[in-house]
């Protein structure tokens, strides 16, 4: 791929793993997702030419692999239900948080996958709207509007109260 030194690769892999961990919500799944991302990137390295676009490209691969995996899981669950076997429901730790940060993390985890991905890419990973647009293959205006809705949804989940509706002037 590109001429990145060992430290740059480590940092990039840590960022990918953090993103994957928030998407998959389990360390093993996150590691598998990062490995699959690197494998896919290495087999398709001729598709990525500029060093500036490497990070968004890798995030795009990871996100698409995650979505593909979710689709496969839903299909598998549907097949199991047809044969009378319901998948075991995972019971998470639903206890009340005693610290505000934990409550925020739990609220963040309840956001839909798409909203979590947008917030992570922009707020945590520091990608620009343009880079996120490229990574998720959606128009930049769509990134901005979805990000606004994601922030509002997070605010509702974290604070427990909806934001006041925006008023528009009608002529």
Radius of gyration: 18 Å
Q: Specify the CATH class of the largest domain.
A: Mainly Alpha
Measure the end-to-end span. Answer: 55 Å
Strand content: under 5%
Number of domains: 2
Structural class: mainly alpha
- H/E element sequence: HHHHHHH
Instruction: Give the number of DSSP strands.
Output: 0
Number of helices: 7
The CATH topology of the largest domain comes to Rna Polymerase Sigma Factor, Chain: A
Q: What's the pLDDT, averaged over the residues?
A: 77
Helix content class: 55-70%
Shape, please?
Answer: globular
Low-confidence stretches: 85-98
CATH architectural grouping of the largest domain: Orthogonal Bundle
Largest sheet report: none
Describe this structure in words.
With 171 residues, the protein is mainly α. The protein has two domains: 1-88, Rna Polymerase Sigma Factor, Chain: A; 96-162, Winged helix-like DNA-binding domain superfamily/Winged helix DNA-binding domain (Arc Repressor Mutant, subunit A). The chain contains seven helices and no strands. The longest helix is centred in the middle third of the chain and has 29 residues, at 54-82.
